[in-house]
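Q: C-alpha cells for this one, please.
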Amino acid sequence: MTRAIGWATLVAGTLDILYAALMSAISGAGPAAMLRTVASGPFPAATQWGTGGSILGLLVHFTLMGIMATYFVIAARNWPMMLARPIQWGIAYGLVTYVVMNWMVVPLRFDTPVPPPPRAILSQLFAHIVLVGIPIALVAARMVRPRVLAG
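A: Here is the predicted structure, written as C-alpha cells:
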C-alpha cells in the first residue's frame, strides 16, 4: 500500500505541478513565484524567501498530493469497487479534491472569492480530474490489493 501511495503521489504531483508551472508561466507570474505562493499556505512569509521559498513550495505541494493519494488508496483498499472502475472513481475523486481545495482550503487561507472566476473553475477542474484524480485512481487500480475481510 505504501508503494501505491508513493507512486500515486509522484505521478499526480508531477503532472499537477507541471501544469501549474505552465499556467503560471503563461500568466506571466512564473513557476518560482507560484511555488512560493504554494509555500505561503502554511508559511505566509514564504513569498519573500526566494529560491528557498520555491523549494519549500514544491515540498508543500507534494505533501498535499501525498495526503490526497493516501486518502484515495486507503478508501480503494477498503472498497474494491473503486479499483474495478478507476476512471469513474478518479473523476469523482478529482471533483472531491477540487471542491475541498478551491471552495474551502484556498478561500479560507487566502481570502479568495467564492465562487472562483469561471476560467479558474475550468482550469482547476481539469487539473484535479485529469491530472490528480484519474492518475491516482489508475495507480491504485494497478498496485493496490483489496482488503480481504475475514468472515
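A few notes: The CA atoms of residues 88 and 134 lie 8 Å apart. The chain has one domain: 2-143.
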